Amino acid sequence: MNAQSHVLIRPARPDDVPRVARLLALRGITVQEALEQAPRMIDVLPVLLLACLCADDAEPAGVDDRASRLAEADAAAQSAEDDDRAAPVALSGAFLLPGDLEEGRAERWMVSGLIVDPDARRRGIGRTLLAAVGAAVQEIEPGEDLFSVVETANHASVAAHLAAGFEQAAHVDGYAGLVFDGDALLMRLPGVAQT
Q1: Concatenated DSSP letters for 16-59?
Q2: Which domain holds residue 45?
Q3: CATH number of the domain encompassing residue 11
Q4: 53: closest CA among 83, 27, 28?
Q5: Of 24, 38, 80, 122, which sits 20 to 30 A from 15 (CA to CA)?
């Protein structure tokens, strides 16, 4: 491909069920399970973003040009059925995890997962998507931290989180009822302080 590739991030929409299901199936669940989970995720998660890898002769839009970027992402999404280069290659989201008094855990925003198509890895898509999820949480609740649990053996995911501005908060064996096979990291993206 001669054109430069860049990532366009956009919210998942109800008509994205097949696209979200395709990405969920990369996690090893059946296609039927993915098709059942996708509409619920789109409907329930306050933040669910898709990343499209698109070819473009120009540089990606600047950070301050949000409206232009969203319009470009929508145009790319509309052409996704005709152009595989614009099809979503990754997804991530966030939800508000209720607090737990017994565990001494306050209510907090959590990353709902990060899925990047293996054919699209090593291009900074995970980092870009995690940063966009963090920005979306800041739009909903300015100043709130965003947390994520990542298995330490998943070096690519740990690196993507660090590159997106997350920092290590703690080593955990389990978190909020989830138990991990090995060691995991609770990572935190600090919220932006209001001035």
Answers
A1: GHHHHHHHHHTTT--HHHHHHHHHHHHHH-SEEEEEEEEEESSP
A2: 4-189
A3: 3.40.630.30
A4: 83
A5: 122
pTM score of the predicted model: 0.79
With pLDDT > 70 as the criterion, what percentage of the chain qualifies?
Answer: 79
Coil vs helix vs strand at 187: strand
Look at residue 46 and tell me if it is in a domain.
yes
195 domain residue, yes or no: no
The β-bridge partners of 47 are 94
What pLDDT, in 10s, does the model give residues 13-48?
999 999 999 999 999 899 999 999 999 999 999 999
The answer to whether residue 194 sits within a structural domain is no
pLDDT in tens, 43-70: 999 999 999 987 653 343 444 444 444 4
Partners of residue 116 on adjacent β-strands: 90
